[in-house]
UniProtKB/TrEMBL annotation:
Gene3D superfamilies: Ribonuclease Z/Hydroxyacylglutathione hydrolase-like. GO terms for molecular function: hydrolase activity. Residues 69-255 form the Metallo-beta-lactamase domain. It comes from the Bacteria. This is MBL fold metallo-hydrolase. The lineage of its organism: Bacteria, Pseudomonadati, Pseudomonadota, Gammaproteobacteria, Thiotrichales. Coiled coil: none annotated. Keywords: Hydrolase.
C-alpha cells in the first residue's frame, strides 16, 4: 500500500485500519503525512539459526528511545520471515525490517501480535506498507480490543511518552485470527501457537518454534514489574507451568534478555509470592498497603525481584491487583 492509499484508508475507506479520529491531526492538510524521525538501528540478537529478537535497552518509553522498550522478534524460515510483535510505531517497524534485511533477503510472510498492548502491534503499519498482502495474525480478543479503543489509547500513550516520536503511525489491525492450538508450517519450520488462558492479558499467544526448541513468551513472563491491570496472577502461574512443559531450550521475552526455562520459574515464583501472600493476609484482615512491606520482605522478593526494573514504583500496584483477584476468586 502506498502512502496515498494508506491515508485514504486512514480516513475511513478501509475496515482494516482504526483509530482515525485520534490520527487525523497528525497529518498535514495537503494530504502528506508528517512523520517523526526514523528509529535508530538496534542490531538483532541471534538466539538460534532461525530465531532472533531486537533487545530494547530501556524498560519504559521515552523521547530518547522513540518509545522503543519491547523486543520485536523474528523467525527466519525457508519460506520467509515470521515476525513476532512489531514495536510501538511505524518507525520501529521499519527499523525491524532493516535488521531483518541484514540477516536474510527473504520477505516477511507473516506477523504475529502476541497481545493488544501498543508496544506489540503499533509497528504493524510498517509491515503492511512493505507488503500489503502480509498476514497479520492475532487472537480475536486482541483485534477487538484494538478496535474498541485500545488502538487509540496506545497510540496516544506512545505519543505522550515519546514527545510525538511515533507521528505518522497508523493503527493497523491484524487481519487473520489465531485461537491457540494451531500448527503453522513455513517451509522447513514448524510454528505452534499456544493460548493458555488469561495471563498478562486474556488472549496472550505464545509462539513455539519447534525445530529450534525456542519459545516466544510475549509478555506472559518478564523480569520487570510493569502492568498487571489486564492480567491474572493465578492464570500466569498456570501459564508458566505450561510454558515450562513445552520443554523449550530458549525463552524469548517481550521485555528484557532471553534466557532458559528459569524465566518461567522466576515469573511463577513472583506471582506466587504476591498472590498467595495477598490471599493469606486478606484472610487476616490486612489492607493492601499493610501487606506490602510483609510481601516485600519475603526472600524471593528481596533477593530476586527487587532488582527488576519498575519494582519499587509498581509492586504496590501489583499487590492491589492481586487483592482484587483474591476477592473475585472468593465467589
Ligand atoms: Zn504487554
Amino acid at each position: 500500500m502506498n502512502r496515498r492509499d494508506l491515508l485514504k484508508s486512514a480516513f475511513g475507506l478501509s475496515a482494516g485500519l482504526v483509530g482515525m479520529s485520534a490520527l487525523k491531526p497528525l497529518y498535514a492538510s495537503d494530504g502528506l503525512a508528517f512523520k517523526a524521525d526514523p528509529m535508530y538501528d538496534v542490531p538483532a540478537t541471534k538466539v538460534t539459526d532461525r530465531c532472533y529478537y531486537i533487545l530494547a535497552q530501556d524498560p519504559e518509553p521515552s523521547p530518547e528511545n522513540h518509545a522503543f522498550f519491547n523486543n520485536p522478534g523474528f523467525i527466519v524460515t525457508s519460506e520467509g520471515v515470521v515476525v513476532v510483535d512489531t514495536g510501538s510505531s511505524v518507525q520501529i517497524g521499519e527499523m525491524v525490517l532493516r535488521q531483518i534485511k541484514k540477516v536474510t533477503d527473504k520477505p516477511v510472510v507473516a506477523v504475529i501480535n502476541t497481545h493488544y498492548h501498543g508496544d506489540h502491534f503499533l509497528g504493524n503499519h510498517a509491515f503492511i506498507e512493505a507488503n500489503p498482502k502480509v498476514e497479520i495474525l492475532s487472537h480475536q480478543a486482541t483485534i477487538d480490543n484494538i478496535k474498541n479503543g485500545g488502538g487509540e489509547f496506545w497510540h496516544g500513550f506512545m505519543q505522550r511518552n515519546s514527545n510525538n516520536g511515533i507521528s505518522g503511525t497508523v493503527v493497523t489491525l491484524p487481519n487473520k485470527v489465531l485461537n491457540g492450538g494451531e500448527t503453522l508450517k513455513f517451509g522447513d519450520t514448524t510454528v505452534k501457537i499456544h493460548q493458555f488462558g488469561k495471563a498478562h492479558t486474556e488472549c496472550d499467544l505464545i509462539v513455539e518454534v519447534v525445530e529450534d526448541k525456542t519459545i516466544f513468551l510475549g509478555d506472559t513472563a518478564m523480569r520487570r514489574v510493569a502492568n498487571m491491570a489486564d492480567g491474572s496472577f493465578v492464570g500466569t502461574i498456570d501459564t508458566m507451568k505450561k510454558a515450562r512443559d513445552l520443554g523449550g531450550k530458549n525463552y524469548i521475552l517481550g521485555h528484557g534478555p532471553h534466557d532458559g526455562v528459569s524465566i518461567c520459574d522466576d515469573m511463577q515464583a513472583f506471582c506466587e509470592n504476591i498472590y498467595n501472600s495477598a490471599a493469606k493476609y486478606y484472610d487476616e484482615g490486612l489492607s493492601d498497603f499493610e501487606m506490602k512491606p510483609k510481601i516485600m520482605a519475603q526472600p524471593f522478593m528481596k533477593d530476586v525481584a527487587s532488582s527488576w526494573p519498575g519494582y519499587e514504583s509498581t509492586v504496590g500496584k501489583f499487590i492491589a491487583v492481586a487483592v482484587q483477584e483474591v476477592e473475585q476468586n472468593m465467589f
